[in-house]
Amino acid sequence: MSIHFITKISQELEKGIPGESSHEKMAPLNRPLSSFALKNASDARESAVAVILHTQTPDLECILIQRPEYEGNHSGQIAFPGGKKEENDPHLEYTARRETAEEIGIPMNNGILLGKLTQVYIPVSNFVVHPFLYYHKNLPELIPDEREVAEILSFKIYELLDEKNSSTMNIKFQNGVVMK
Prior knowledge:
Blueprint: H1 3-15, H2 34-39, E1 45-54, E2 61-66, E3 78-79, E4 82-84, H3 92-104, E5 112-116, E6 120-122, E7 127-136, E8 151-156, E9 171-172, E10 178-179
Parallel strand pairs: 1-7
Antiparallel strand pairs: 1-2, 1-4, 2-3, 2-8, 5-7, 6-7, 9-10
């Protein structure tokens, strides 16, 4: 992957991002846009995640994690590495790097920050998630924190464009509510 690619993504992000309307395709049916849902939320907590692009292989890939099974809203979910902003975190980009270091072992100073993506509100846990996009030419050895990460996954970005890789499902919550 050339420096041209990194520069192009950074330039596109500087022009502006599609915003929360880009979240609609993958959001649960009837979930309101984050900006609307936040108007009715109280005491939403801030969090940050790292969207890590890398070229460890010849293809451009992205890192995801699978959360362990536990009693909670995000048990077993596939996610970007990241988590809650702590009181001592100076800013959300720091939170994304700190949480990624804790969860999968990428040192905080590794990777080039390409930009910030559109935040999303997660009603079930009352978090506003701030995603930050990073590029890593080479990754260090990834070491999952056993308490927070069941598995580290990597997928080829072009797979997102293949419609056969997109599906829908019903999600049943602990309170019995089913979200489509």
